[in-house]
Amino acid sequence: MLLVFLISVLLISLVTYRLLGFAKRLESTSEALDVNEILRNVVGFIQKEAEDQNVSIEFNLHENLEHIISDHGQLEQVFLNIINNALAAVEDEGRIEIRTWEESGYMVAVSIADNGFGMSTQTMNHIFEPFFTTKKQFGTGLGLSITFGIVKKLGGEIKVESQVDVGSRFIIFYQSDKVLSVRRTLHEPVEDIACRR
Question: Which one is the CATH code of 30-196: 3.90.1300.10, 1.20.1250.20, 3.30.565.10, 3.40.50.2300?
Answer without folding.
Answer: 3.30.565.10
